[in-house]
Amino acid sequence: MSTTTGSLRLTIPDNWYDLSVADESAENALARRLWDACVEAGIEEETAGQFTEEVRRSVRHARRNGVLHAAGVFEIYEDGPLTATVVAAMVTPPGNADLLTALTENKSGVDTWTRVSTVRIEGVGTAARVHGIQDVVMDDVTIRCAVMHTLIRIPGRTDVLVITGTSPNIAEADDLFELFGMITGTVSFR
Fold first, then answer.
1. Which residues lie closer than 8 Å to 148 by C-beta, 6 or more apart?
2. Which residues pair with 167 in a beta bridge?
3. Measured in Å, how far apart are the chain's first and last C-alpha atoms?
4. DSSP letters of 107-135?
């Protein structure tokens, strides 16, 4: 499924949801869809409430941080749920440091790590990539996640497009990094 926001185009897997982060009503609709999926899958109400609140935090966090677009997946498997999101945001690099340095600073606890590399994206060029296991803080709640940031310079602008894939399913981190890379590889500008 391809999705377009302004001049940004990104292709997400067919089983993913195209998530509106526009306002509180979009947040409510998304939370309701997630709740319904949990109930249908037979997940206990307390756990369904925790998943729903995680998604609400993610949407609020995204909206506050200038996200242009978001997409996500929530599926139930025999060994538990899979939750993942990909967000695209225009970011102005901090004046006193570069964005890559800010993303690689280890503010997390034990057993977290990051790797820095470059990747070539067809039609876009070379981009910087940071991936690893990090502690992500949203609304004062810390969640250990598999995280991949891809930083794309936009010609003629000081802003940088950052595409971030995140999932608390760290046992599947390698597969998630591959998936996040595949999704990011579809980015284009009209």
1. 129, 130, 131, 164, 165, 166, 176, 177, 180, 181, 184
2. 146
3. 17
4. -S-TT-EEEEEEEEETTTEEEEEEEEEEE
Look up the pTM and report it: 0.77
Give the closest residue to 51 by CA, choosing from 21, 22, 16, 84: 84
Q: How many CA atoms does the CB half-sphere of 32 hold within 13 Å?
A: 6
Q: Which two tokens stand for residue 30?
A: 């998304």
Whether the Cβ atoms of residue 160 and residue 154 lie closer than 8 Å to each other: yes
Strands 125-138, 113-121: pairing is antiparallel
Quote the CA–CA distance of 74 and 54 in Å, as a whole number: 12
Three-class SS of residue 178?
helix
Could you tell me if 131 and 177 are in contact, meaning their C-beta atoms sit under 8 angstroms apart? Answer: yes
pLDDT per residue as tens digits for the range 106-155 = 555 677 889 999 999 998 899 999 999 998 887 788 889 999 999 998 87
Q: Give yes or no for a contact between 1 and 52, defined as CB atoms under 8 angstroms apart.
A: no
Residues 14-66 pLDDT 10s: 988 877 666 777 778 878 888 888 888 888 889 888 888 887 887 777 777 77
CA distances for 6 relative to 9, 10, 84, 85, 189, angstroms: 8, 11, 23, 20, 9
Three-class DSSP category at 8? strand
C-alpha–C-alpha distance, residues 156 and 160, integer Å: 11
